[in-house]
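Please study the protein below:
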Amino acid sequence: MRDLDELRGFDRIVGQDEIVGHLKHSIQTGKISHAYIFGGEDGSGKNMLASLFAMDLLCRDRSKDGDPCMRCTSCKKALGGNHPDILYVTHSKPASIGVDDVRAQLVDTIDIRPYESDYKIYIIDEAEKLTPSAQNAILKTIEEPPEYAVILLLADNPDVLLPTIRSRCVVLNMKPVSDTEVRDYLIQNMHVPDYQAEIEASYAQGNIGRAIRAAESSEFIQIVQGAVRLMKSSQNMDTAEMIEAMKFMSADKQNVYEYLDIFGMWFRDVLLFKATREVDNLVFKDEINYVRQRASTSSYEGLETIQKAIETAKQRLRANVNFDLVMELLFLTIREN
């Protein structure tokens, strides 16, 4: 097995072969665009991919397969976050990137040639926060950049950027990673036990960063165990047990969305078993007796109602609806269906 630190270059990017191939081909043929948009939710890998692309562009000893060498002076500076020709546009306001930010850090400096490389690379993370004025301020730069300039916009949702910006960039949207690829990555590179990797891959829902964070968390498996314990007894809870369940959830509010996601995984297993009677594709195989029992007593309509109730609970909590009320309604729905 390879240790995580042994992964080189684009090997770190899981499940994005098409995008990686495009970027490597661009570098090898010298057909580099002056502006790229990397789209994908937090944890999808877009930040790492953009950083590797920047490193690869500036590498002085690139491998034959197009990976950065990770050893030359340029790569070491990039890895250390202090390469003078890789510039990160920052912003003081948490909710927006304003016109003053992009003018001071990009528009007014882009005519200064690279210090030691062939390219000068600007990386704008959270580009969906660019105000319309800020986007218009960089539009002319994107339209008529110096030959050495490359601008990388990283956005959770590229569609919120102005059409004039999107049309002038190469748009690369990160794809959800299959559960199998996520599981294999956790097992092979993070040495996660098989059963744990199965749960974390399903929990990640195609987001490799989310899976890695779960694998690195010392409390995630405890959350899983607590959530499963609640689900195993949920159908037969009396009033006193329901109150205890609500107290349990209330004591761990900071992890409530993790609990709700695991509840959803549990009932997906129940629904899958009810439909197929097969165990192999279940996440919670070790709890098959409880899954089988629930599948035998809940209807398809009831399971669909429960899944909708879990999503509704998330929405209500995000809208700051009273926590205890949300949990009470959810547990009642789970018990009654």
Notes: The first strand starts at residue 35 and ends at 39.
